[in-house]
Amino acid sequence: AEIWLQELDLDRMALVGERHYLWRCCCGGVWAEGPHIYKRNGYYYLLISEGGTSYDHALSIAISKQITGPYQNNPRNPVLSHRSLSFDHPITGVGHADLVELADGRWFAVALGWRLVDGIHGILGRETFLVPVTWETERRPWKEEQWSTPVFSPLTGRLELRYPLPFDGAAQLDRAAFTDEFDDTELPLEWNFRRSPAQPFHSLTENPGTLRLRLQPGVIADRARYSFAGIRQRHFRFEALTHMDFSPQGEHEEAGVIVIQNDRSALLATLDGPPGEQRLRLRQILRGESRTIAEQPFGGGAVHLRISGDYLDYRFSWSADGLNWQPLGGTVDGTALSPAVLGGFNYTGVYVGLYASSNGQPGGNHADFGFFRYRPTAAGRDDWYHRQRQLQQAGGD
Q1: End-to-end alpha-carbon separation of the chain, Å?
Q2: Rounded to whole angstroms, how far apart are CA atoms 45 and 39?
């Protein structure tokens, strides 16, 4: 792969003029991507990612006096990477950064990386890390031209667990928990759908105070649109719960809660069945195949549903009153939600949310959800890091 530059005509939204080759990165042109160009003190700095979005990911810099090149390789490349660390290091796949200068002249970068479970399972997808940056001038007195280059995380050269916040007196915004009582007319931006709906399948106004999901024929095993609304799983240990009012009219109608990586892997706890024969059912969808894990009769009416996550273990439970909970099946192995097991590119991580489907049959029914509440359950925010360190040390022993 290579990085190239061409003028964009904004009026016509078309590329025009000469195409300029800029760089093929510092390591043989292996997936050179994600270019950013910055001008500082008369030089153009081309920051790119290379090596692929896994253990060998890296950030590299090339420098030029002209924006069209030629660009010269920074001899200190890569400027940030965890490729030289153990596969078991808690943070890996570091790359895709962007630089920013603050008003007081300090520099920072935001970069993507993976937090892995057991050194392999990236169930949370790529996350954003904040990194301090300084600029240093090279110490080669025999050179007539002395370059200045950015130094990422200057004290250690790698992403650390914590850094001081950029602004004195400012507290870090805590967005760990998430609650939606569905008392607004629009969903907050935390909610995502799977693909753009051809037409709205949800409503916050038909039954105020609830999120109404209309059943659609689309199902998860297909590359199709289906009635799903979810938020990203933000923590390795969490709890999510909801209250659902749904009256299925047959075996083909279902609604409930879901943990989903993509169309190929999901766990569902749903209510289905005709009147008088309704049941709660826990099943797994994996590569187009549906497998029932557990099921039990349900007398009908509204139900509370809960999902608990503990790294690679998931548990589902239900309650008639929201106080007394009953398990739906046992512990479910969540490794099938991992990109390492599924293969392919799964950068956004696992989602937790709400689901409704008429499973290939014409729709018309709906399910009403009274709230959605998500919260982390780990004792401390850094538990994942210490857990991985302990596993790493145990392996070394």
Answers
A1: 41
A2: 6
User: Can you tell me the distance from the alpha carbon of 262 to that of 244, in angstroms, rounded to the nearest whole number?
Assistant: 23
What token pair was written down for 360? 């290939």
pLDDT digits (tens, 9 = 90+) for 61-88: 999 999 999 999 998 999 999 999 988 8
CA-wise closest residue to 152 among 304, 4, 45: 45
Q: Cα separation of 299 and 318, whole Å?
A: 13
Query: 331, 336, 361, 329: which is closest to 254 by C-alpha?
Result: 361
Q: ∠ at Cα 267 (273, 314), nearest 5°? A: 120
244 has pLDDT over 60: yes
Residue 161, CA distances (Å) to 118, 275, 281, 348 in order: 17, 53, 40, 21
Provide mean pLDDT across the span 274-302. Answer: 93
| pLDDT for residue 396 | 53
Distances from the Cα of 264 to the Cαs of 16, 186, 222, 336, 344, in angstroms? 41, 29, 9, 9, 11
Tell me which residue has tokens 């106004």: 205
Q: Within 10 A of 233 (CB to CB), how many other CB atoms are there?
A: 23
pTM of the complete model: 0.92
Flag whether pLDDT at 376 surpasses 90.
Answer: yes
Q: Using the 8-state DSSP alphabet, how is residue 121 labeled?
A: B
Q: What is the mean pLDDT of residues 246-264?
A: 94
